[in-house]
Amino acid sequence: MLDTTNRYGTDVHEHEILLSSAGQQVMMAWEREYMEKCVDALGITPTSDVLEIGFGLAYSATHIQSYSPKSHTIIECDPVSLVELEVWAKTRPNVVIVAGTWQTVLASLGSKWHDFLDATLNWHVNVGGRVTGYLAREIDLSRDGCHVAMTPFEVQVPLNCTYFPYKTALVPLVTLVERKPSITTYALRHDDMKEHAAEHKVVTSHPKLVQLRRRLDLQRSMERAADTSSPPCRPITQMPREDFIRHLKAAANAAKKQVDVAKSDDDIPLEGHRKRSDDRVIG
């Protein structure tokens, strides 16, 4: 069975790095200043209760501790990161560790930011509470009862980083100013979208839909807790550019042949079914 946990190490510049079990870059040292800036935006005081998702390289966690919050809860699902977290938390009595994944409460929408705000603002944040996090590109985080601010932050990304192609990151800050439960849905008609919207996001506050979403979240969480099995993660192997292009062309040719076969099959009438010009397939 293949290892499915993260691993800590150093990159070609001898800087610390967090890798997935498949060898993908998860977190790098260049993110420290950016994560600290996100923490600063929260305005943490000694009376604050802080919830943090993911421990990683401890950049945000350590900076949060510099503000001495009343409580600091960290949710972490990776076994290797949990070991590091437990060692780190031994000298920090206000830290509470929750082993598990918060993604079990998420629906499959276009952006996990919307899912995250649905879950936190409705059921985990008091009025006056603030939410921030990693954001590479600007998306519409607006919703009733909230004030949203976006602050650009210049980042120095090294050439060996494979997951962040930008020179600027964003520091989002969502503040709950009034309790107005709402959930994110998606517009089926273009007319329902906001003008110049980059995605089909629609925020609705219908109480029955909010209640239904909460029930689905709880059901999904219980189902995930009952299913402890997880498929093995296949490691990523590096391939020379020439071989990669050759494999890519072969895959494209194979896909084209399948399309040609499908087109020829369209001419064969199906028993008991007559093709009409208005047939639709929704997938």
UniProtKB/TrEMBL annotation:
GO cellular component, one term: cytoplasm
Residue stretches of biased makeup (Basic and acidic residues): 257-283
A Gene Ontology molecular function term of the record: guanidinoacetate N-methyltransferase activity
Organism taxonomic ancestry: Eukaryota, Sar, Stramenopiles, Oomycota, Saprolegniomycetes
Annotated region (Disordered), positions in chain: 255-283
Highest taxon above the source species: Eukaryota
Protein name listed in UniProt: Uncharacterized protein
Listed transmembrane segments: none
